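Input chain follows. Return structure tokens only.
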Amino acid sequence: MTGFHLSKHRAWVVAAILATSAAGTLAETKAAAKVDRVDLELMTTNEVKDAIAAGKTTALIFNGGTETRGPQAVNGGHTLVAHAKVVAIARELGNAIAAPVLPFSPNNAYPELPGTIGITPETFKEVNKEVAEQMIRNGFKAVVLMGDHGGGQKELAALAAELDAKYAPQGIRVVYCEDAYKKSNDDYDKWIASKGLSPGGHASINDTSEMMYLEPAPDAWVRRDKLPIAVEQIPADAPAAQPGHLKHSLNGVSGDGRASTAEIGKYGYDIHVSESVAQIRQLLAPAATSTPAK
């Protein structure tokens, strides 16, 4: 009799476990179904097709960059941060898909500070042109060009104007979101300065903090033990700086990154995303219909 009760008890336990497992699987399936997939390189063909049909007809092309970022930050910082931003922008817009982030921008490598992979402004513009037109061929009705690196901004602006003129007669828009770089960085600088800190530069407090906020684990993108030396080192006899040469800094830092924190980075990330979303909505808003005079 005892064995019968034990067996019956075991059967009940197994049934309860199976029921709980089934419920958990169902919940996970429903949760997965609710995921707002906006990252093209992590979507299937059918998912992209369905997303476009459902109204996600804006393609976001965000340019990153690969360059030396001082002793503390990894060389792919621009690309890593740009990816996080563009996915967030796409989700906030609600009608957009993020294209893969382009990892190269106008720049030039130099052996004293290895890690930079640059391309010419002409190549940069042509690559963006082909990617934008490929997105249009995929069925997108609007393309937004953006860049996380200072080099290439004017090329993106010029390209957007050219492609918009070409495709506007077909009802397709191509625009350049300047606020993703200029306005948001200016406002980020002002906020940092209001805290009594020194903003601006390269591999400085601005971008190092953003990387600290977004990195998947401590030291993944920013080496904390190197922050004490993350400040520009420029020889007293250094010649006048040339564009793209980091003011002849010996360690790849222009400015001061020693006070970088994830908390500062969160502000920068949030303002880059919010101001980009606001301008994109403005740029792609239907033209106001004028009321005829009576």
